[in-house]
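Protein modeling request. Please complete all fields; requests missing the sequence field cannot be processed.
Requester role: graduate student
Desired output: 3D structure, token encoding
Chains: 1
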Amino acid sequence: MICTLEKSIRLRAFAKINLGLRILAERPDAYHEIRTIYQTIALHDRLEISLRKAGERIRFECDNPEIPSGGGNLVYRACDLWRRARGFPGGVRVRLEKMIPAGSGLGGASSDAAATLEGLERLTGEKLPPRLRFSLAAQLGSDVPLFLLGGRVLGCGRGEEVYPLPDLPPRKCLVVFPGFPISTAEAYREAGLRLTSKDKVRSIDNVGAWPQFPLMNWGPAENDFERVVFAKWPELARLKRHLIRAGAEIASLTGSGSAVYSVFESTRQMLHASKLIPKGWLKFGSRTLSRADYRRLLCFR
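Delivered output (301 residues):
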């Protein structure tokens, strides 16, 4: 029997930035051990999710034709995992409006998947046990579990092991996307080659530098991917320097890139910095989201 509290639900899938990211070691499972601090921001995609009658399948639609459909899409996979975990006999329909650039390091696809799990639970009125929710999220991707929490989050393991951190005072956030994506898998491969000594097995040279993250304030933040990405795209390094000179408390690559973000205390500072962005690059004026704001704004009419 399909029990619905609403015929459909609309959700925001918020982006994240990384307030520092350290690559510690290559793991036996071929992933890399990392430490990072995630922070959710107001930039978001939008989803509309509805449940269908028994016998129907998953139907996914997106306003961006470049976004894959079917099993290659995290939203589709989130629906499939949830249906299997619940033994749900009905179909699911999802419409996605994309604003977060793909391949930017802002976690758009992961956030879409997490919002899908949240929406499906709200539609049925039945929450999965927390351990199962986080297990499903981790199966979907390393960044997905953080979006089940929101706010400021410590990420360990390959990023999927998450712990909520106290929120800091709100800040304005300028996000810049240069117009090209960066493959996370390729970035990790290159980072491993650059950061690992030949005479060490599964050991990253800067492992002793952890922790050097801003646990009680906004900055500074260091991202190990910058050594790889900035060497290939020096224009991103120049952008970071310009943003810091413009008064940013933090300016950094987010995730493996290609987006660069900066955090400011005032709107005036952010607007001034936005004038430094090269023509043709996308820029988003946003703000940081506390955990309470994240939960409050997740659903909308």
